[in-house]
Amino acid sequence: MNRLERNFGATGEAHLKYLPGEFKVLVAGSYVICAVTGARIPLEDLRYWSAEHQEAYATPDAALERYRQRS
């Protein structure tokens, strides 16, 4: 998703396809759930995810924790 793509009026959980460096919205929504903390992440704040594991992370610490769990 780029800054020109917006899901105006979309509410609820979005379903995304995580790609390297970007993501594609499959089902419109306003947030996704962090795979580690369970926190809601507004799409405009989503910065961390794994394309390999198709997971979103709320913070870099959450991403690192998941990486350590998989190691």
Descriptive notes:
The protein is built from 1 helix and 6 strands, in the order ββββββα. Helices cover 15% and strands 32% of the residues. A two-stranded antiparallel ribbon has the order 1-2. The protein starts with 14 loop residues before the first strand and ends with a helix. A hairpin with a 4-residue loop joins strand 5 (48-50) and strand 6. The protein has 71 residues and is α+β, with helices and mostly antiparallel strands. The mean pLDDT is 91. The protein has one domain (15-70). The chain is globular, with a radius of gyration of 12 Å.
Short description:
The chain is α+β, with helices and mostly antiparallel strands and 71 residues long. It has one helix at 60-70, and strands spanning 15-19, 22-27, 31-33, 40-42, 48-50, 55-57.
